[in-house]
Amino acid sequence: MLSKQNKAIGLPEPTQTILLSTGTAEEKRQEIREYFLRTWELYESLFDCLADERAYFSKAISLRHPLIFYFGHTATFYINKLMAAGLIPQRIDSHIEAMLAIGVDEMSWDDLDDQNYNWPSVANLRQYRDKVREEVLGIIDTMALSLPIGWDSPAWVILMGIEHERIHLETSSVLIRQLPVQWVKPQPHWPVCEIARRDRNTVPVNTMLAVKGDVVTLGKRDDTYGWDNEYGTSEQKIQAFRASRMLVNNAEFYTFVQAGGYGDAQWWDEEGAGWRNFTRAEMPTFWVGSPLEPEQLKLRLMTEEVPMPWDWPAEVNQLEAAAFCRWKAVQTGESVQLPSEAEWMILRNQVEGDQPGWKTAPGNINLAGWASSCPVDHFAQGDFYDVVGNVWQWSSTPISGFDGFRVHPLYDDFSTPTFDGKHSMIKGGSWISTGNEALKSSRYAFRRHFFQHAGFRYVISSHQEVVKVNPYETDGLVAQYLDFQYGPRHFDVMNYAEQLADIAVKNTVNHGRALDIGCATGRASFELARYFDSVVGMDYSARFIDVALSLARGETRRYVMPEEGELVEYCQASLADVNLSAELTQRVTFVQGDACNLKPQTELYDLVLAANLLDRLREPARFLTGITPMIRSGGLLMLSSPYTWLEEFTPKEHWLGGFRENGEAVTTHQALKRLLASEFEEVRTPTDVPFVIRETARKFQHTVAELTLWRKR
Questions:
Q1: CA pair distance 351, 503, nearest whole angstrom
Q2: Dist. CA 672–CA 667, nearest whole Å
Q3: Where does 326-475 show beta strands of DSSP type E?
Q4: What values do phi and psi take at 239, rounded to 5?
Q5: Would you state the torsion angle of the CA atoms of residues 267, 270, 274, 280, taken in this order, to the nearest 10 degrees?
Q6: Rounded Cα gap, residues 587 and 633, in angstroms
Q7: 228 near 411, Cβ under 8 Å?
Q8: 61: closest CA among 16, 30, 92, 104?
Q9: What is the 3-state secondary structure (H, E, C) of 456-506?
Q10: Are 25 and 146 in contact (CB under 8 A)?
């Protein structure tokens, strides 16, 4: 097997990832050093499989850079992250570090990258890699180190580089697999599994096993390095289901091919049909030959083509796996589908141990087996096979962040671009998954048309996965209001909504029904619900109302705030973060409405709050006229505004104040007294209420609103 062969010929053995808190600091320093060197040498040994210069400089697929980029990219990653962390004073080669800094996200299958690059030579990159290796070793040997290793530790930056290189160990092996076979060559330290059934009739038949339901808690809890999307928690209740004992093998998948599955539109969703039509696929991409001549089919491995091993897992993309499941559902009359992340975790919890505690790998994973897949019935894990290892397993779950997700500042775009509902989770790891990839807690996702060393198992389940599309809010105004209403306090100025709610409860006689008009993303509505029996939050903007409703459902809203230039900060807002309970949300109703065209109400309000609204209305006097009959006798009207009268919002003839009348200055407060005198009495003299809105990391609006209180007669 691979690990034994590597040891025999002097190549580094695959290693388990390291723990963050065990031993002494100096023992951990040495452990990190060894982990770095093993990873570095293992990655370089992968490129021994390239036999032709063209293999470095030609794209294996149009959606990715050629392998010369990835050969240097993992080294430049260390330097770029060490520079960003302030751990080194200068670059090694600024040209290389700029050119090889950013890879290509595999976008739609029909996106073509036609850019031409003047890539460095292989020899130049080898010299560059040698320099980076010595630089990183110097950092490891001298960095301040205390345990446990956390996000702010220099060691975390090193571990980030190591685990990043292990990701590219796998993704580069997939690109090698997609190069012309004559450009690559087998290597003894990357041995192929020789166990295979070449006769389809001898392949074991897949069966379904019952799996008990459970409450599954997702989120990283082990003492190892993790990527940002692994942290936080998600609890899901999963009903009992059945799961295939084995991964779908090539013989089982061929029944779908033979039945005309690739040509039958009913098995493909819109995305899958688009991919299939564009690629003109008739069978899995790594199959070589004609599907009409199954006995002549071959399987493309990383460096060679071999007669079809029918009992090895079928390696397909998620679109193909989902199409197979739809076909299988009709054949069986049962709800066949891909497992969700939580359903896979129930299976995973039945496998003894996790990678940090492995003495030997439980399957074809962590490079402990071969440099290829192997039969799907070779590694039993409890009642199932290959819950861990052999190939990744596609799930039905689009990746998103858990509750409590936060972005690591040194790698703020690792996960966030994938929270778009278009990247599906892969679980379990493959034969070349090492380090963090091999962990139970790992969470990796790819676009559904993309290829990894990935296959699938299927389940019969009533579970319907909820597709969460929760990317970072980039609408500038929505993001700014989320930050204003739920973000951190600035310059020790109390949250505006909290200030207003506190004043409201102290000056309202009855705490029955309240209206927060111009509620934006809803913070004041939720704050009022602490004191009032029911609250209506109303805003003209459907975007604001959608955000407020999602917060009320307990969701976390992610948003982007500008820092400087192109740099941004990734933030999030939730009611739990500001100590607002789910119980309070039951008292709040959000509606879209026009303050200048209010619908009559059958129930009157004890409080109407209009914060920062008057000077943003086209006809503020009309609003005041319309709202008056909606307030019960003894009820309170709260008006808070900085009186920033602008013609882009309010035609000048409708300004309430801020102008001269017959040569005399008219303030907004004076106009309010005139307009409200017949129905209201002013409770107290106007009060200044300050608030701060963040625009960038160093630019803030520090505003003082005037608050007036009016009690209806």
A1: 57
A2: 9
A3: 336-337, 380-381, 384-385, 392-398, 423-427, 444-447, 454-455, 459-460
A4: -75, 165
A5: 10
A6: 23
A7: yes
A8: 104
A9: CCCEECCCCCCCCCCCCECCHHHHHHHHHHHCCCCCCCCCHHHHHHHHHHH
A10: yes
- Average of pLDDT values for 584-606? 89
Place of tokens 């996702």: 445
Rounded CA-CA distance 486/496 in Å is 10
Please compute the mean of the pLDDT values over residues 245-268 and round it to a whole number.
97
CA distances to 268, 313, 336, 352, 704 from 325, rounded to whole Å, are 10, 15, 6, 29, 60
**Alpha-carbon span 293 to 291, nearest angstrom:** 5
- Residue 15: what residue type? T
Contacts of 662 (CB under 8 A, 6+ apart): none
CA distances from 383 to 189, 222, 347, 351, 380 (A): 32, 25, 9, 9, 7
Number of H helices, E strands in the chain: 18, 27
For the chain, domains (ranges, CATH) are 2-183 (1.20.120.450), 200-460 (3.90.1580.10), 476-712 (3.40.50.150)
pLDDT value, residue 403: 84
In terms of C-beta density within 10 A (0-12 exposed, 13-18 middle, 19 or more buried), how is residue 688 classed?
A: exposed
Contact 323, 258 (CB under 8 A): no
Instruction: Round to whole Å and give the CA distance between 658 and 649.
Output: 14
For the segment 429-482, what is each residue's pLDDT rounded down to a tens digit? Answer: 999 999 999 999 999 999 999 999 999 999 999 988 876 655 555 578 889 999
490 vs 496: CA distance, rounded Å: 11
Angle between helices 250-258 and 318-332 (to 10 degrees): 70
Pairing of strands 588-592, 605-611: unpaired
Instruction: State whether the Cα torsion 508-514-517-518 is positive or negative.
Output: positive
> Do the Cβ atoms of 674 and 664 come closer than 8 Å?
no
pLDDT at site 409: 82
**DSSP secondary structure letters along 89-142:** SS-S-HHHHHHTS-------TT--------PPPHHHHHHHHHHHHHHHHHHHHH
Query: 488 exposed, middle or buried (CB, 10 Å; 0-12, 13-18, 19+)?
Result: exposed
Q: What is the mean pLDDT of the chain?
A: 91
Q: Which tokens is 267 given?
A: 């098995």
Residue 572 backbone phi and psi in degrees, to 5: -150, 155
**Alpha carbon distance 449, 109 (integer Å):** 7
Alpha helices of 570-695 — where are they, by DSSP H? 582-585, 620-627, 668-676
CA dihedral 24, 26, 32, 34 (to 10 degrees): -120
- Is the distance from CB of 627 to CB of 635 less than 8 angstroms? no
Q: What pLDDT is attached to residue 7?
A: 45
**Distance (Å, whole) CA 260 – CA 539:** 53
Pairing of β 444-447 and β 423-427: antiparallel
Res. 105: pLDDT tops 60: no
355: which 2 tokens? 């990678």
Interatomic CA distance for residues 544 and 592, integer angstroms: 9
Tell me phi and psi for residue 634, to 5 degrees.
Answer: 90, -10
- Distance, in Å, from the CA atom of 151 to the CA atom of 131, rounded to the nearest integer, reads 26
**Closest to 596 (Cα-Cα) out of 575, 577, 572, 613:** 613
* Alpha carbon distance 67, 54 (integer Å): 10
CB 524 within 8 A of CB 580: no
Which among 227, 234, 221, 553 has a CA at the least distance from the CA of 403? 234
**pLDDT at 10 > cutoff 80:** no
Provide CB contacts within 8 A for 217, sequence distance 6+.
233, 234, 235
Angle (CA) 701 704 706, round 5°: 145
Query: Are the C-beta atoms of 538 and 591 separated by less than 8 Å?
Result: yes
Residue 109 pLDDT exceeds 70: no
